[in-house]
Amino acid sequence: MQLLRAVLLLFVLPIHGQDTTSEGIEVLPPLPKGACTGWMAGIPGHPGHNGTPGRDGRDGAPGEKGEKGDPGLVGPKGDTGEIGVTGDEGPRGFPGNPGRKGEPGEGAYVYRSAFSVGLETRVTVPNVPIRFTKIFYNQQNHYDGTTGKFHCNISGLYYFSYHITVYLKDVKVSLFRKDKAVLFTYDQYQEKNVDQASGSVLLHLEVGDQVWLQVYGDGSHNGLYADNVNDSTFTGFLLYHDTN
Ligand SMILES: [Ca+2]
C-alpha cells in the first residue's frame, strides 16, 4: 500500500526539471525532505480485473476399475457361412425290418399252366381222345375234361407223361399233338413179351395247339384200366415259356 501511494503522488505532483538519461529513460526527482510530515492516506482504488485463465492442470491418476456392466442386446443374425468340407463316411447301420409281402404279380400267373388227371373207368371207345375225368390238378383249366384234350394257352416248352394200368387186353396208346401221334406205347397183356405202358416227352407248343392220348390201331388194343385201387394218369405242365 505504501508503494501504491507513492506512485499516485508522483502523478499528482507537478513535474519540475525532468531529466532524461542518454537512453531516454525518465528519471524521477527525489522526494523533498520531510515529505512524510502531515502525510494523508488516499482513497482506496478499485479492485483490478480478473486475470486470464490459467493453464490446464496435470491429468489425474486412473480411477478404480468399475463394476461389470449389463449384457448388451442381441445383435442381428449374421450372414450364412460357406459350406464346409464333406466329412468321412459313417459306419454301416443295422439291417432294417423285412418289408411286407408283395401282392402276387400278374405276369407270374399268366405263365402258369399245369394239369394232372386220371381215368375213372376203363376205356371202351378206340380212336378218339381218351377222357381223363379224375382231376388231381387243373387250376388254369387248360385241360378240358369233356374232350380229353389239353389246350395250349402259353407258347413254350411243355412236359407230358402218362402211366397206364393194363388189364384184360393189350394196350396201344399214342400221345397226339395237332392230330398227329408223336409217341407210341405198346403193352401186350396176354403174350407178355412187350411191356411198355408209360411215356414222357418234351414238346414245344404254340398257342392253340392241343395234346391228348388216344388208342391207336384196330381198336382192340384198349386195355387201359382204372378202378378204386388202380390208376392210369396223364400229366402235363409248362417248363419254360417263350420269351419273345
Ligand atoms: Ca405186358
Cα Rg: 72 Å
Helix content: under 10%
The helix-and-strand class reads mainly beta
Q: Report the span from N to C terminus.
A: 143 Å
Low-confidence stretches: 14-21
Write down how many β-strands occur, each being a DSSP E stretch of 2 or more residues: 13
Order of helices and strands: HEEHEEEEEEEEEEE
- Cofactors and ligands present? calcium ion
Quote the beta fraction. Answer: 25-35%
Mean pLDDT across residues: 84
Sheet with most strands: 6 strands, antiparallel
Q: How would the global form be characterised?
A: rod-shaped
Question: How many helices in DSSP terms?
Answer: 2
Protein name: Adiponectin
Main location: secreted
Biased composition (Basic and acidic residues): 55-70
Region (Disordered): 39-105
TL;DR?
This protein is 7% helix and 30% strand. It is mainly beta and 244 residues long.
What's the structural blueprint in terms of helices and strands?
Elements: H1 2-12, E1 19-20, E2 26-27, H2 106-110, E3 114-118, E4 134-137, E5 143-144, E6 149-151, E7 156-163, E8 165-177, E9 180-187, E10 198-205, E11 210-215, E12 222-225, E13 233-241
Antiparallel strand pairs: 1-2, 3-4, 3-13, 5-6, 6-11, 7-10, 7-13, 8-9, 8-11, 8-12
InterPro entries: C1q_dom, Collagen, Collagen/C1q_domain, Tumour_necrosis_fac-like_dom
Subcellular location: Secreted
Keywords: Secreted, Signal
